[in-house]
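Contributing new records

If you add data, match the layout below exactly. Sequence lines come first and carry their own label; structure lines follow with theirs. Keep one chain per record. Anything else will be rejected by the validation script.
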Amino acid sequence: MMDQQIAELTRAIQALTAKAAQHAVPQLWGVIEIAEWMRLSASTVSQRVVCQPDFPPPCQPTATDGSKRWFAPEVVEWTRTHRSRMPVARRRKTG
């Protein structure tokens, strides 16, 4: 009996998680967040990435400082399809 209840709860949680994911608001990234994700400097992202003509268009939310923001899923998808044209990521300093 307990295993059946756990299975039912697991299915209910999965259904709720899937429903919540459908209504999730995409995260917005600025140049700094894009740079951190790409492991590039912010200046490289500004000068060599977001200025590319086919990079996703920015939005400028009014509730922030007015700087440009991009939808994170669009940036991720664009990066995946343009790997060959990306600047080389900086190396992390060790020790």
